[in-house]
Amino acid sequence: MTDSPPSILWFRRDLRLSDHPALLAACEAASTVLPVFVLDPRLLETDTPRTRRLLASVAALSTDTRGALVVRRGDPVEVIPRLAAEVGAQQVHISRETTPYGRRRDERVAGALGADGVELVTTGTPYAVGPGRIVNQSGTPYKVFTPFSRAWHQHGAPAPAERPARLPWFRGEVRSDDLPEGPDTAPGTPRGKKADEKVGEKAALERWATFLESGLTAYGKERDRPDLDSTSRMSAALKYGEIHPRTMLADIAARPGGRSAGAATYVTELIWREFYADVLWHHPESAWHDLRPELAKLPYDEGPETDRLVDAWREGRTGYPIVDAGMRQLLEEGFMHNRLRMITASFLTKDLHVWWPVGARHFLDHLIDGDIASNNHGWQWVAGTGTDASPYFRVFNPVTQGKKFDPDGDYVRRWVPELRHLTGAGVHEPWKHANGYDNDYARPVIDHDEERKETLARYESARR
User: Fold this and answer.
1) Which of 162, 192, 248, 436 could form a disulfide with 333 if both were Cys (CB 3.0 to 4.6 A apart)?
2) Is residue 271 domain-shared with residue 336, that is, in the same domain?
3) The pTM is what?
C-alpha cells in the first residue's frame, strides 16, 4: 500500500476517462485514485441486453485503466464503506445520480460512509445541464419541452472537462471480483446482429467521429428513415457514460457545419434527453405513473384477449408490417429506431388500449440503451399522459407511417421475411395483394380505423 491513502472513484453511469469531472476531483483530492465498479445485485438480478451491454462496457473500462479497476459484488451500501476502510480513503467521488433508485442508493451510501467519517463527494452528472437546474421565472420546473428547450439554450452548457494530465491509479493490494464471463462481456458487445459492434470509450469516440463526418449534416432530413439507418447510434454510449453530452455538443459547435439544420436537430434530440431527466428529477413518481392527472379516468383493456394481443405486439405478429418490423428489431438487436419506438408505442396504447407501463417495461427488458427517464417519458408522450400539452388526438396510423418513413419497404423486408416477395411500398399493405399472405404472415389483429375512433372517444370521455 502507498504511504498516503487514495481517494476512491466509484464508476456508475460514467464509464470513461475523458470529460469526467468526478475523476478530476478524485485526482486533486489524493496522490492516487482507486477506481471501483460495484456489481449491484439490484441492477444485475436479471440477464438482459442492458446487463450484458453494461458488463461489456465495464470490461472495456478495466482495460482502459490498465487493470486498475476494482470490481466488487454486493450492495453498494455495504461494499463502498468496506472498501474505503480497507484502503483508508477519506473521500469517495461520484458523478451525481439523478434517477429515483440512484438517488436513494447514494443517500444510503453517504450515510454509511459518514458514520465512518468518510465523505461522499458528488461532481457533475450524466447531463450537459444537471437535472433540477433549469426552472421558469417562478422557480417551478417545466413540463413542456419547447419552453424548457428555450431556457436550456439560454442557460448554456459548460465546456467539456479536461482529461487529467496523468492518471495516478492506486496499485496497492486490493481484492477484485471477476466480471461474469460470457461472449457478451469481454470487451465485446450485446447479443444479436450488432454483436460485432465494439463498446467502451474508445469505440464511442470513434463512432461519434464517424457520424460527425458523414451523418450530421443530413441528420435533419434522414433521421426518421429506419431503412437508411442514418442515426448516430450513440444512445447506448450515452446511457453508460462512455461519452458525455458536453463532448458531443462541443464537437458539434466546433464543426463548420455546426450551425446546419441537421446539427440543430441533433442538438434538439440531446435536449430531449436532458428534458426527460429533468422531469424525472422533479417528479420521481412519474417513472411508473402518469405525469398528468387529466387522464386518470381513461379506461384500459385487460383480460385474456388483451393478453393475447399484447403477446402478438411483443413478438411482432400484429399484422401491421411496420409495427412488426420494429418489434422484431428490438428482440434481435436490442435496439429500435426512434420513429419505430413512437409507432409501436402508439399501437400498444391507442390501438390495443393498453396502459403504457406494460410497453415501457418490455422496452426496458430488451433495449440495450434503455434509460428510464427517456424511455418511460417517451412512452407517456405517445400515450398522451406525459409532457405534451395536448397529445390525446395523436394516433399514429401504422400504414401511412410505414409508407412515409419506409417508402421503398426495405426496412420491413429486412425484419419481416414473410413479406420479402412484395416489392416497393406494397409491403406495407399485404392485404391488397393476392399473394400477400403466401408466406403465412399474420393477418391484422385489429382494425386500426375502428380502434382510432374508440381511442378518441375514450379520451374525450376521460377529459370531461
Assistant:
1) 192
2) no
3) 0.94
